[in-house]
Amino acid sequence: MAGLAPEASLGFQVAHLRRLLGSELRRQLEPYTVAPAQFAALLELFRRDGLTQAELCVRLDIEQPTMANTLTRMQRDGLVARAPDPSDRRRSRILLTARARALEADLTHAARAGNTAALRGLDDEQVDEFMRVLGIMIDNLARQDHPPGPS
């Protein structure tokens, strides 16, 4: 049985890229004492403040216990506050604090700097094509998890 060289393995290459991108994002966010997992939640809340924990889980494809721990740390770090949902007191809305809002421009700039480092040497057309192909692969695999119903 022939082996599969890492440089010829899509899974290996994507996993390696993910590790490198994660390390770069951590490095870029370090001055702001924000972890990458916190940053992902912040990005969603920058887009729509007041989401519930369950909504964040769906948007970020993260399990409830992991999101609960992340939000607890974010609350401890003064990035978010929880407020009762007016339509359902059993749920909480996650709200950005003034500290988080003040960091928004710096955090998004830091993330863009990491992306720029990763994309160095590629022109706009190559980046667009890469993102297009990546989207197709993501859709292909997402459909495997949730196949369409019968026609």
* Strand residues, percent: 5-15%
- Give a quick account of the main beta sheet: strands, pairing sense, barrel closure: 3 strands, antiparallel
Counted by DSSP, the helix tally is 6
Write out the strand line-up for the largest beta sheet, numbering strands in chain order.
Answer: 1-3-2
What is the average of the pLDDT values? 91
Radius of gyration: 18 Å
Determine the fraction of residues in helical runs and give it as a percent range.
55-70%
Task: Note the run of SSEs as H and E.
Answer: HHEHHEEHH
Query: Which term fits the overall shape?
Result: globular
- Uncertain runs: none
Cα(first) to Cα(last) distance is 39 Å
Going by helix content, strand content and strand pairing, the class is mainly alpha
What's the number of extended β-strand segments? 3
List the helices and strands and how they pair.
Elements lengths: L9 H20 L6 H12 L3 E2 H8 L3 H13 L3 E6 L2 E9 L1 H22 L4 H22 L6
Antiparallel strand pairs: 1-3, 2-3
Keywords:
151 residues; mainly alpha; 3 strands; 64% helix; single chain
Tell me about this structure.
- The structure is a single chain.
- By secondary structure, this protein is mostly helical.
- The chain is built from 6 helices and 3 strands; from the N terminus they run ααβααββαα.
- It has helices spanning 10-29, 36-47, 53-60, 64-76, 98-119, 124-145; strands spanning 51-52, 80-85, 88-96.
- It has a 3-stranded antiparallel sheet.
- The longest helix is centred in the C-terminal third of the chain and has 22 residues, at 98-119.
- It is globular.
